[in-house]
Structures
1.
Amino acid sequence: MLKAVLWVLLAVPAALTALDFYQGNLGARPVTEAIHQIGLWGIRYLFLALAITPVRQLWRWNRLAVWRRNIGVASFCYLAVHFSLYVIDQKFDLWKVASEIVLRYYLTIGFVALCGLCALAVTSTDAMTRRLGGKRWRQLHRVVYLIGLLATIHFFMQSKLNVYEPVIMGGLLIWLLGWRAFEAWTEIDMRRWEWASGFSIAVAVLTAFGEALYYDLLTPAPFLRVLDANLMIELDMLRPAWWVLAITLGVSVVAAVRQTTAKAARKRAKPA
C-alpha cells in the first residue's frame, strides 16, 4: 500500500505537465516546455534517490532504504520520457536525433547519463540483485554518483546563463559526494549531526563561491559583486547557496532532534 501511494506521488508532476499540455498552458512551444519540465523532475528525483542513504543514516531511519529503489526507477522513467519527447520534438527524425547527440556535447553527456540510469533501472529488481550478487550489485550501483555528476553538467550546459537551479543541484551534489568521501576515506562519523551541520555550512559557502566564479568567467558580472549578492539574505529571492544550506542543514536539524530524543529514551529505559 505504501509503495502504491509513493508511486502516485511520484507521478503527480508528470500528470500536472500532461494536464497543462492538454489545456494549452505550456506556451508557444508546448513540447519543448514539457521536455524541460519532465527532465527537471527526473533530475530532482535522481538527487532525492541519492539523498536517501545519508538521510537514512543521519535520521537512523532504516525504512527509508526501501524508497530509494522506487525513486531511482521513477527518475529513469521521467528522463526516458524526457528523451522521448525530444525525439517527438524532432518529428521522429532518428538520424537527426543521433547526429545532434554526437555533435552537441550537452546532449552527448545527457544521453550517456540516461544510458547509465537505464542499466541501473534494469538491474534494480530483486532477481537481478540475486543474480549479480550483493557485492557486484553495490559496485555497479555506485555508478549513480557519476550519473548524478553527468546530469548536473547536462543541466548546467542546457540552462546556459540561467543556472539558478543547476547551481543548487551542484551544491547538493558536492554535499552528497563529500558525504560518501568522508564516510569511505576518513575516521569522521558523518552520521553525527554535528559533523553533518558543519559540512553543510562549508558546502553552502563553496556553492556561493562557485556561482560567483561561474558568472565571472562566462559573463561581465564581477566575481565580488555576485559573491556579495550570494551571501546576502533576500527572502523574496534566496540565492542557491542559501537553498543548499537550508536543505542540508534542515536534514541535520531533524537528525539532531531524532538522535537527542533517542538518547534520552535510552537513558530513561536503563534500570535505576
2.
Amino acid sequence: MYFDGPDPNGNGISEDVAVPMTDTQLSALPPGLHVEKRLTGLYTLPAAARSNAIARPRLHLSITGPQAVHGGQRATYRITLSLSQPTNRVVYALKNVQVGATHARHRLRHWVVPTPPPRGRSRALDLTLAVPSTARESFSVTATASAKHAQGTRAQFCATISRRLPVGLG
C-alpha cells in the first residue's frame, strides 16, 4: 500500500519501507505473477521543493464607508476580501472563509465565503446597519477574516458622528 499527502511539518521526507514476502505468501500468489525485489530507504524532495513548510495563504480585508454618519440613521459599508500567496510554493487550499463585522464587541454580521476569490481578485460584502442614536464622536466597524490553514486578518473603519441641529433651530 502507498499513502501520499502533504507534510504539514514541511520537512519534505517520505519513508518507503518494504518487508519481504514470506514463502507462504509467495506460494499463495496466482500463477504467472512475478514479484520484483523492492529497495527500502528514504526519499528526500529536491531542495527547491522543500524550502519551507506548506505555505499558508494570507487573507486581506479593506472597509469603505461614509466619512460621517448620523446617529439613528442607516449607513452602508463595503468589506472587500482578497488573498495572496507566495509564488512557486505549495499552498493550502482554502474553504469556508469566516468574515465577521463587529462594533464595540457586538456582532453586526457574519458571512461564510465557501470559496475565496482567486489570487488577484476580490469579493465584496455589503453591510448596511443602523448607527446607534447613542453614538458619540465616532462610530467604528471592525471586520475579521479567518480560515483553516490561512493567516487571518483584521481591518477597522471609523466615521465621525455629525451633529445636526434640531428642526426649526437653524
